[in-house]
Amino acid sequence: MKRILPMAVVIAAGAMLAACNSSEQQATTTEVQHEAPATAGQSAVQDDESQKNVVQVAASSPDHTTLVTAVQKAELVDVLTNAGPFTVFAPTNEAFAQLPAGTVEGLLKPEKRSDLRNILQYHVYVGVLNADSFEDGQSLGQVNGGRVTMGVKDGKVTVNGANIVASIPTSNGVIHVIDKVLLPQ
């Protein structure tokens, strides 16, 4: 009997340790689950101290509401809020209004998302190119795989014939405001 009692104590102690380890693992797993990041992307990060990124700058502009809506519908917000760097040729609302009637509304439909993405990605170059770095005839490879041609004449800079009317530095690149929508070939 003396041998059975110590053996029973050892077994009971082992069972208690196993139960404690299981509880600790469950607590650790629960903690990890609570600490897991939300499914939102970079655009969900709240930062009121840093310089605004290209999406934040465009969203704060009353002249770019159509562009911002298009970026949202194309699900490109998180991409354009990342570190970049990006050079974005940003058409104004007036530029979008120059397109044939119904074009913008059609592109905003869910079934046209890939066409909209293609057009928007045609407005983005990976890297930072300031207006003074462009050369006449310079060709740039855009995110969608297409190419745009820069024009520089008498101090005016164009991209595929669209005038760059303003340039705005951002935390992840530069925005060049343009007066026409660029359409891929």
Automatic annotation (TrEMBL):
One GO cellular component term: extracellular space
Keyword Signal tagged: yes
Keyword Ligase applies: no
InterPro entries per UniProt: Adhesion/Biosynth-related (IPR050904), FAS1_dom_sf (IPR036378), FAS1_domain (IPR000782)
Sequence ranges assigned to domain FAS1 in this UniProt record: 51-182
Keywords: Signal
SMART domains: FAS1 (SM00554)
Domain of life: Bacteria
Record's signal peptide: 1-18
Protein name: Uncaracterized surface protein containing fasciclin (FAS1) repeats
